[in-house]
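Q: Second attempt. The first request was missing the SMILES, so the protein and adenosine-5'-triphosphate are both included now.
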Amino acid sequence: MTAMPTLVADTGPGSQPVTLGPVLSIFDPVHIGIDEFGQPVRVPLIYRNMLIGGEPGAGKSALLNAVVAHAALSLDCRLVLLDGKLVELGQWRACAEPGGFVGPDLDAANKLLKRLQIMMDRRYAYLVDCERRKVAAGDAFMPYVVAIDEIAYFSATVGKKQDREEFAALLRDLVARGRAVGIIVIAATQRPSSDIIPTSLRDLFAWRFAGRCTSHSSSDIVLGHGWAQQGWTANSISPTNPGVGLLIAEGGTPQLVKTAYLDDATCAAIARYAATLRTTVNRQAATDTGQQPGAADAA
Ligand SMILES: Nc1ncnc2c1ncn2[C@@H]1O[C@H](COP(=O)(O)OP(=O)(O)OP(=O)(O)O)[C@@H](O)[C@H]1O
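A: Got both inputs this time. The predicted holo structure:
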């Protein structure tokens, strides 16, 4: 695990400081579950994106929550959450950036993605100035984890066509260009169809997880064309086994995974702990530098 500082929370006048930590790092691989041999499956997410698809109840939100839990506990990254269902990621709201949680509101989602796009452009300008190709651990610019549940809600369900198309274009740009500047997109959909995930978008996700799918073709839409014909299809996963799915990495072969599951109470407890850590570290940073978190991006 990447070494991170232990933090001391000041719990108020007259009380003893409480030591908080340890914490995680977004530069570490994220534990997402176990493989069919019971071995842990850990995926490096930095400089990568993850697509999660599958039928309703397949376990997509559970996987998304496991990844967001790691990100929330990683004080070296910022969190942005777009939740078309409001309650799937709602528990992590206090861990998100100020203004970084959007519920079922397409206008707000587009505004947030536009802000990220501007920040991405500025980060690229900075990298060009420094003659570098990507952000690194310890940079003034922290990685962002952008979690989206559910893509189709914003890109195909609500609002005006023009706004939905704007959402799809902004998402595509973030997924295509965000990696080098530390923007990691984790996006879930219960509609793995070619209108929601065209091949050109799918191929930009280095990690793809297909929970149970209703057909071979929707499994292929997540994993990549031709895998079902070779016997790798999320259509064969039992509907009574949520959380099981096929995970594929760029250029790799699918592997069967049972994802880690955090129930609501556990998510809430981790979220409270992570929010306390984040408040503490932001307060310390403001005291030490006189700057608010994210100041490097605003400069
Ligand atoms: N890894 C897991 N282990 C055990 N149970 C799981 C796991 N993942 C999901 N489940 C169970 O399946 C249920 C549905 O999971 P989840 O809400 O993540 O599905 P989903 O694919 O996001 O569904 P929807 O598209 O309808 O939101 C959970 O409430 C939980 O009971």
